[in-house]
Every structure is written in C-alpha cells, then in structure tokens.
Amino acid sequence: MKYALILACALVAGCDAVRSTTDRVFGSSSSESTAEPVATDVPEEAPELVATASGWAGAKTTVAGLGDPNTPGRWLQTPLVETEINGRVVVPRTGAQAYVALVPAPGPDGGGSRLSLEAMRALLVPFDELVELEVYSD
C-alpha cells in the first residue's frame, strides 16, 4: 500500500499541470518558456465600453421572490440595473452566493426582484419565501 501511494505521488508530481501550477506559485527556476504578450488590435473605444458596463462598486440590497420557473438559467430580474450584466448575489443570512445574470426589471431601485429557480437552488433558499440578497456587479 505504501508503494502504491508513493508511485501515485510520483506520477502526479510529473504531470505538466501540476508542474506549471507550482512554477507559477513558487516561481520558475528554469527559463524554458517565457510567454511573450500577444498583441491584439483593440479599437480606442473599447476601454470606454468596458467602463460604462462595469456596474457599481459595493453591494446593493434587494428582496427577491421566485421568478418565472419556466425560464431557464441563473438570473435575477431587478430594478437595480438598466442593462443586462453579470453579477453575484449573496444571502447575508447564510453566506451562500451564486453568479447570475442581472436582468433589468421595471420599478423603483428599492423595489422587489425576481430570482430564477436555478439560482434559488444554488443559494439553497426556499422557493416559497422572500429572501434578502446583496447584489454585486462583477
């Protein structure tokens, strides 16, 4: 049994994935492949587009109930956003979090939100209750 464990450790240590990870963490002692940055043609307007779609800093709070269970995916329909962006929701009571698509919904900023069935499952919250959420734009 000891020899099988030693053999397994030796095989794993020889893997390229493990070797490349340890090289990144501890620094590469060899000068094998130094990756050079790849030049891409990025138009001048691209940084402005990213800056306007970045969302906000910090958390915003909303109360959410179950949205349309027939609509697939992880999403949160909320009046906190004006355009669809990716974000993260956290249940402050339990600390559970999930990455979702933040979809605009009509209503005031303090209005309620609707959470998808899949997102509620990921957050481990009851389907028949309202849940307080902290919403982060990522």
Brief write-up:
The chain is of the alpha/beta class. 27% of the residues lie in helices and 25% in strands. It is elongated.
Characterization of this structure:
With 138 residues, the protein is an alpha/beta fold. Helices cover 27% and strands 25% of the residues. It contains four helices and six strands. A hairpin with a 6-residue loop joins strand 3 (85-90) and strand 4 (97-104). The longest helix has 12 residues, at 2-13. It is elongated and about 65 Å long.
SSE layout and pairing:
Elements: H1 2-13, H2 16-26, H3 46-52, E1 60-66, E2 75-78, E3 85-90, E4 97-104, E5 113-115, H4 117-123, E6 131-137
Parallel strand pairs: 1-5, 2-4
Antiparallel strand pairs: 1-6, 2-5, 3-4, 3-6
Structural class: alpha/beta
Content of β-strand: 25-35%
Helix content: 25-40%
Largest sheet: 6 strands, mixed, barrel
